[in-house]
Structure formats: C-alpha cells, structure tokens
Amino acid sequence: MLRVTCAIIEFNQKVLIAQRNQNMLLPYKWEFPGGKVERGEKDEVCIVREVKEELNLNIVVQSRLTPVSHHYDTFSLELFPFICSTTSQEFELKEHAQVLWVDYQDLLNYDWAEADIPIVKEYLALKLE
After folding, report:
1. N or C: which end of the chain has fewer CB within 10 A?
2. What is the pLDDT of residues 1-26, one digit of tens each?
3. What InterPro entries does this protein's entry cite (predicted)?
4. What is the reported pLDDT for 128?
5. Which contacts qualify for 112-116: CB closer than 8 Å, 24 or more apart?
6. What's the pLDDT tens digit per position in 44-81?
7. Domain extent listing, the chain
8. Which CATH superfamily is domain 2-127 in?
C-alpha cells in the first residue's frame, strides 16, 4: 500500500486545490497536492518537500487530519492529510493540469479523486464548527 501525504494549504481564506493532468492516474480529478513518502522520511517532511517540488511553494504544517485508506482498481494508498499555511499565493505549475485558490465553501463543487473526498468532508466539518 502506498503511503502518501497531501496538504490542505490555506492562504487569505482560500484553499489550494490541484487538478491531475491527462497523463496521471485518475486524469483530471481534483486533489490536494502532495506525494509519496520516501523510505525513512517523516510525513511532515514529505509534505513540505512534495509541495516545494510540485509547486515551488513553501508551506508550514499546522495540524493533521484523519488518514484515509482507499483502494482503487489498480492500486491502494493510505493518505495522510495536513492542514498547512503559506505566506504567498504564488506557485509554479509543474505537474498538474491546473491549480486554483478557491473558497472552502466551494470545495464540494469539484470532481475529487475518491481518496480525497473524506478529507474534503472532514476539513469542511472543521471549518463549520
């Protein structure tokens, strides 16, 4: 099972979401950016590294959400989500089809990768508390 991290990146009341490109598994599905944990790497280190590599964006981990195990047809993953902050909304589009800053209230309006859906719902529940 793949061990993967993802970041819910907040900036000025917006959240960063990324659309997978046509060559990725799950093409054109939306996700929170992140990536695979390397052997011996801590999850918190992984998510900071992955976001820097994919978006050239510096983030700070604020808190963890509940991990999600999901089984797709061709692979399984355990997804470790983090709420993160950043001091800039500027990023470089390197891997994804598109990346957007959106209002958290609009998150359910996107076609999410299935593993991300429980994370979206948990995040929204926290925001509405």
Report:
1. C
2. 899 999 999 999 999 999 999 997 88
3. MutT-like, MutY_C, Nudix_hydrolase, NUDIX_hydrolase-like_dom_sf, NUDIX_hydrolase_CS, NUDIX_hydrolase_dom
4. 86
5. 112/29, 112/30, 112/31, 113/20, 113/26, 113/29, 113/30, 113/31, 114/70, 114/72, 115/68, 115/70, 115/72, 115/77, 115/79, 116/6, 116/30, 116/31, 116/32, 116/68, 116/79
6. 999 999 999 999 999 999 999 999 999 988 889 999 99
7. 2-127
8. Nucleoside Triphosphate Pyrophosphohydrolase (3.90.79.10)
